[in-house]
Amino acid sequence: MLKKSLLLAVCAAVCLSTCLVSAQSVQDRLQRLMNPSTGAWTADQIATMAKLRDAAMQAPYALTELRHLTDNIGPRLSGSPQAQKAVEYVADEMRALGADVHLEKTSVIHWVRGTETGELVSWPGMAEGTTQKIVLTALGPSVATSPDGLVADVVVADSFDALRKLPEGAVKGKILLLNEKFDKRLAAQGDGLSAYGQAVVYRGAGPSVAASLGALAVLVRSVGNADYRLPHTGATVYANGLPKIPAAAVTAEDADLLANLTQQGPVRMRLTLTPQTLPNVDSYNVIADWKGSEHPEQVVIVSGHLDSWDLATGAIDDGAGIVVSMQAIHLLQKLGIHPKRTVRFVAWMDEEQGGEGAATYAKDHASDLSNHIGALESDLGAGHPIGILAVGKPELAEWLRPVGHVLEPIGAATITPSPEAGEDIDSLKGVPQFAPNQDSRFYFNYHHTAADTFDKVNPQELNENAAVMVVLAYALADSSTPAPR
Distance between CA 359 and CA 364 in Å, rounded? Predict the structure, then answer.
């Protein structure tokens, strides 16, 4: 054992060493704050980023384009005439900026929503001869009931675990409601995407699970944050080898109603859904290249998805992502900036119903993904961005630090490692991927509902997102060395 005096000396030395290291660490941080490194960029390039940031905050371009896309063209469901009109419109706008534009053909589902009604015809305590309306909307690509609808008893399960505990045969020949609740507290803390991820599996897998148990139809509690009696639509998946049964999302209020009434006794419901799945149609990704001055073969993608659901006009999902990506090309053109590498705008088609546009791009460009230096996608609305999500090597965060410093005046300086940055760019394996790190507290109030309209977009926050997209796109396209991969 060490003598007491020696032990005290050792402790003092350790404390002194720790204090010195801590002091040095603080000194290093202060030095970085006072004299930030320009990293892979020159001082002139950093100044250009600041110029792009400020121009993005002043330009009305994104808001003007969004208003036309939503109000004039409207809902843009894959395979619809509006989706095709949007393709033509965005391509023409990119040509007007002087970009090299081409349309990349892809085959997409053509699902058409029909009648969708629900009503209770029998329940405990009802007034004789009455019915009670249930507000719902079909999930894409749900199959139809008969034109007259189906009538069956309702069974409610709050989770897959609760469903497994029901007696054998409890669901057979009935309408199953999967009543998993969206985690509002998680969303309120700024992590709406995780809350969505926990609940959306019920929408995706619900019809197949219900069909495997003999259900005639399935209802899913709306995967969303707002209780305004708004149903949230979205895509579902039918598993091979199982019957396809009608599937709909029901409002949170009506899900609670059904849960309450079924606890009191038998509840019988009439459900009518008449959607159609027509033959696939040809559609397109819109691709517009702002050619690089030194390495035009090297590409940085800036993107959003052009299709939307049909209940509203797709302002936050994903009109906002489209127009902030368009604005990146607009600002490069307006300021006469030609980075070393090509900045490629992509308006993806069919993100909502299967991702065929992204799959087509990944297949068609498989041989040149090594020349894709980075890919950006905006698909979480237009809330205030606190910074950048980065998918790839851990070194990316440090490499992007100078870019974060440029974005600090708009409150978007944080670089956060992430497992994903966007559904469409996720197919570009090995390519560094990025997205604005947006405030998601309110996004799922409107997502996939009839309330996803132009008025939900804050013009200043839309421009903040445009600033993140154009600054980052330029930084990736003009850096002295490519982003780590």
Answer: 9
